[in-house]
Design goal:
By secondary structure, the protein is an alpha/beta fold. It has a single domain, classed as Metallo-beta-lactamase, Chain A, CATH 3.60.15.10. About 20% of the residues lie in helices and about 20% in strands. Strands 4-5-6-7-8-9-10 form a seven-stranded mixed β-sheet, with helices on one face. A three-stranded parallel β-sheet has the order 1-2-3, covered by helices on one side. The structure holds zinc ion (ZN). Zinc ion (ZN) binds next to loops.
Length: about 260
């Protein structure tokens, strides 16, 4: 972790290839959504697009996301569509639309948020340091997926955020699944409990809790406090439609 903080970092093509292999068993994504631009969210985007040869998959993100991706010289900046934050639904395809909400990002340690700020100009080279992946604006997303079996809504936040920042607009009364970032939950206010109460999701998925610094498989990221997070979720989930907290391993397929 210390080497990641101060040394050079770059995407590992063979690690990305393992993910790419799994992704090839799934339909091509309609879009890639980026909640914020720290390295653990953006570092592998260029390599993944290269390996998957996604030429027509848009990336929904912030100006910072776009400016970081420009450094890879793969034309990715032209695929970035800036997230529309206006409480309206935005269609990606006939069966997928989204809303984006301004959220914020928990500190990494008490009072300290690493790599804050924005990347205001397109990078001219691929970033090689963690501190070049500046956070930029932070978005929570709400997705609506339609099929002949009906519609499902999925709320997602990629960082723990102070409630009510990141809450959906009032027209959203509940969602079917809430995917909530675990690390930092104890460093922000009213998270995850007020999100759980607000979103009233039958299913709540813990996310971002695995330790990608370790190669030994599923292991909790340092200081994540997964059990405490689950306890808080369960404290908030006292509504009749609540069913389960899901804690899937990376790469697991979850059917809604
Ligand atoms: Zn982050």
């Amino acid at each position: 972790m210390i080497t990641t903080g101060i040394g050079d970092i770059k995407s590992n093509p063979s690690q990305v290839a393992k993910i790419a292999k799994q992704l090839r068993t799934l339909p091509k994504p309609k879009a890639i959504f980026v909640g914020h631009s720290h390295y653990d969210h953006v570092l592998d985007v260029a390599e993944l697009f290269r390996q998957m040869q996604w030429t027509d998959v848009p990336i929904i993100g912030s100006p910072t996301t776009r400016n970081i991706l420009a450094g890879y010289h793969q034309g990715l900046e032209s695929k970035v569509e800036l997230a529309q934050v206006d409480d309206e639904w935005h269609a990606i395809s006939p069966d997928l639309r989204y809303k984006a909400f301004i959220a914020d990002h928990a500190p990494h340690l008490k009072g300290v948020m690493l790599y804050s700020g924005a990347v205001k100009q397109p990078l001219t080279d691929a970033p090689t340091k963690a501190n070049q992946f500046k956070c930029g604006p932070v978005y929570a997303y709400l997705f609506e997926l339609s099929s002949n079996q009906g519609k499902k809504t999925i709320y997602f936040t990629g960082a723990a955020t102070n409630a009510p920042i990141g809450f959906p607009d009032k027209s959203v009364q509940s969602v079917d699944l809430a995917i909530l970032c675990v690390p930092g939950w104890h460093l922000v206010r009213g998270y995850p409990i007020n999100f759980v109460k607000r979103l009233k999701a039958p299913y709540i998925m813990a996310a971002h809790y695995d330790d990608f610094f370790e190669k030994k498989g599923r292991r909790e990221v340092i200081f994540a406090g997964l059990q405490g997070f689950i306890d808080e979720v369960l404290r908030g989930a006292n509504y009749p439609s609540f069913k389960e907290v899901l804690i899937p391993a990376v790469g697991t397929r979850v059917n809604l």
